[in-house]
């Protein structure tokens, strides 16, 4: 079968890590007799330069005709001025909304070979392997009203955190489905002691739990969860939460793995049911890192693991996904490291060589 993949290399180190992700897909195609058709489009700063828009209409049109979208990085310091009318990140938000990508999956796994790469004690993070399910198209990032104005007493601004029962139920179901395929334990994170939207969130989560009697549901306040992620990260398996909390907590948890260059993500338009294909966008959680662009030192592993997630969730190719993950593990076991995870006794490699090594293992 031919699989159509929209390729969005974006800004900074994006083209470099994307090249390695595509290299892995080509290795998968050769071994398992698949065919991948890649269609490159623009997003982010490079799209603003060439079209004036962070998300050209052509990009969204191509993405909608694909089986999946693979994105590398968005961001350019030339557009950091908040007074500018358009920013690279606007393209990513518009893409998520335009494709209906409501479920963001961010796995956080501490590889045994990298327990010393984190600033936390090895005995605290060893065995950590959990996944965030973050609601991606609602909450304070999209709620109305959202504005800034001037009064006689000074400037004011407002953002609105709003959630419907439907939005909560579908992301919580995504959490339950992922938990059902793992250890059957789900933690729902909210701020129900303060926020009305969180109280509704907790009510709906409890109601949906009746559909999943085989999964144990517990609740955690977001501040308590933030503390426990540092104190006992290995205690978690699946965490489901709303947009803002998920954004903050998943970035905090990224440090457990020692580098953001190790962590992939998936943004899905449907509930991830094992063995079924769900349209999605796949990207490393790191940024565009313009300061190291073009130097062949960026870590491509997060992009490569994002490819594995794409194979699993959008193409239903579980065997191929596991092969890519096993290849990454094998390369790390042999001591190969990019700059961000380098330690004494390891062998330093660049972006391209790391991709070559993983592709060879596939």
From TrEMBL:
<feature type="binding site">
    <location>
        <position position="106"/>
    </location>
    <ligand>
        <name>substrate</name>
    </ligand>
</feature>
<keyword id="KW-0100">Branched-chain amino acid biosynthesis</keyword>
<feature type="binding site">
    <location>
        <position position="223"/>
    </location>
    <ligand>
        <name>Mg(2+)</name>
    </ligand>
</feature>
<keyword id="KW-0028">Amino-acid biosynthesis</keyword>
<keyword id="KW-0432">Leucine biosynthesis</keyword>
<dbReference type="InterPro" id="IPR019818">
    <property type="entry name" value="IsoCit/isopropylmalate_DH_CS"/>
</dbReference>
<feature type="domain" description="Isopropylmalate dehydrogenase-like">
    <location>
        <begin position="4"/>
        <end position="358"/>
    </location>
</feature>
<comment type="subunit">
    <text>Homodimer.</text>
</comment>
<feature type="site" description="Important for catalysis">
    <location>
        <position position="191"/>
    </location>
</feature>
<feature type="binding site">
    <location>
        <position position="251"/>
    </location>
    <ligand>
        <name>Mg(2+)</name>
    </ligand>
</feature>
<feature type="binding site">
    <location>
        <position position="96"/>
    </location>
    <ligand>
        <name>substrate</name>
    </ligand>
</feature>
<keyword id="KW-0560">Oxidoreductase</keyword>
<keyword id="KW-0464">Manganese</keyword>
<comment type="function">
    <text>Catalyzes the oxidation of 3-carboxy-2-hydroxy-4-methylpentanoate (3-isopropylmalate) to 3-carboxy-4-methyl-2-oxopentanoate. The product decarboxylates to 4-methyl-2 oxopentanoate.</text>
</comment>
<keyword id="KW-0460">Magnesium</keyword>
<feature type="binding site">
    <location>
        <position position="247"/>
    </location>
    <ligand>
        <name>Mg(2+)</name>
    </ligand>
</feature>
<dbReference type="InterPro" id="IPR024084">
    <property type="entry name" value="IsoPropMal-DH-like_dom"/>
</dbReference>
<comment type="similarity">
    <text>Belongs to the isocitrate and isopropylmalate dehydrogenases family. LeuB type 1 subfamily.</text>
</comment>
<dbReference type="Pfam" id="PF00180">
    <property type="entry name" value="Iso_dh"/>
</dbReference>
<keyword id="KW-0520">NAD</keyword>
<feature type="binding site">
    <location>
        <position position="134"/>
    </location>
    <ligand>
        <name>substrate</name>
    </ligand>
</feature>
<keyword id="KW-0963">Cytoplasm</keyword>
<feature type="binding site">
    <location>
        <position position="223"/>
    </location>
    <ligand>
        <name>substrate</name>
    </ligand>
</feature>
<dbReference type="GO" id="GO:0003862">
    <property type="term" value="F:3-isopropylmalate dehydrogenase activity"/>
</dbReference>
<feature type="site" description="Important for catalysis">
    <location>
        <position position="141"/>
    </location>
</feature>
<keyword id="KW-0479">Metal-binding</keyword>
<protein>
    <recommendedName>
        <fullName>3-isopropylmalate dehydrogenase</fullName>
        <ecNumber>1.1.1.85</ecNumber>
    </recommendedName>
</protein>
<comment type="pathway">
    <text>Amino-acid biosynthesis; L-leucine biosynthesis; L-leucine from 3-methyl-2-oxobutanoate: step 3/4.</text>
</comment>
<dbReference type="InterPro" id="IPR004429">
    <property type="entry name" value="Isopropylmalate_DH"/>
</dbReference>
């Amino acid at each position: 079968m031919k699989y159509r993949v929209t390729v969005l290399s974006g800004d900074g180190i994006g083209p470099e890590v994307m090249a390695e992700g595509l290299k892995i897909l080509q290795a998968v195609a050769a071994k398992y007799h698949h065919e991948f058709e890649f269609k490159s489009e623009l997003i982010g700063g490079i799209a603003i330069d060439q079209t004036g828009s962070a998300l050209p209409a052509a990009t969204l049109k191509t993405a909608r005709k694909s089986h999946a979208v693979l994105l590398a990085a968005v961001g350019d310091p030339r557009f950091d001025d908040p007074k500018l009318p358009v920013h690279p990140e606007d393209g990513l938000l518009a893409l998520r909304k335009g494709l209906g990508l409501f479920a963001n999956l961010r796995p956080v796994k501490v590889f045994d070979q990298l327990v010393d790469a984190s600033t936390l004690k090895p005995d605290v993070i060893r065995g950590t392997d959990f996944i965030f399910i973050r609601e991606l198209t609602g909450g304070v990032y999209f709620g109305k009203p959202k504005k800034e104005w001037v009064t006689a007493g000074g400037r004011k601004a407002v953002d609105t955190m709003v959630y419907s029962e439907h939005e909560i139920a579908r992301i919580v179901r995504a959490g339950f489905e992922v938990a059902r395929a793992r250890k059957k334990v789900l933690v729902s994170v909210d701020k129900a002691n303060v926020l009305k939207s969180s109280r509704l969130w907790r009510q709906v989560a409890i109601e949906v739990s009746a559909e999943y009697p085989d999964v144990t549901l517990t609740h955690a306040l977001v501040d308590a969860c933030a503390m426990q992620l540092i104190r006992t990260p290995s205690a978690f398996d699946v965490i489901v939460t709303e947009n803002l909390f998920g954004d903050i907590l998943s970035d905090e948890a990224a440090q457990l793995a020692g580098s953001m260059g190790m962590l992939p993500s998936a943004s899905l338009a449907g509930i991830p049911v094992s063995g079924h294909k769900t349209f999605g966008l796949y990207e490393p959680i790191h940024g565009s890192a313009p300061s190291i662009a073009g130097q062949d030192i960026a870590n491509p592993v997060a992009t490569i693991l994002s490819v594995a997630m794409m194979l699993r969730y959008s193409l239903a190719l579980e065997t191929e996904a596991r092969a890519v993950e096993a290849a990454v593990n094998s390369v790390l076991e042999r001591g190969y490291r990019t700059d961000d995870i380098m330690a004494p006794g390891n062998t330093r490699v660049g972006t391209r060589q790391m991709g070559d090594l993983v592709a060879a293992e596939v």
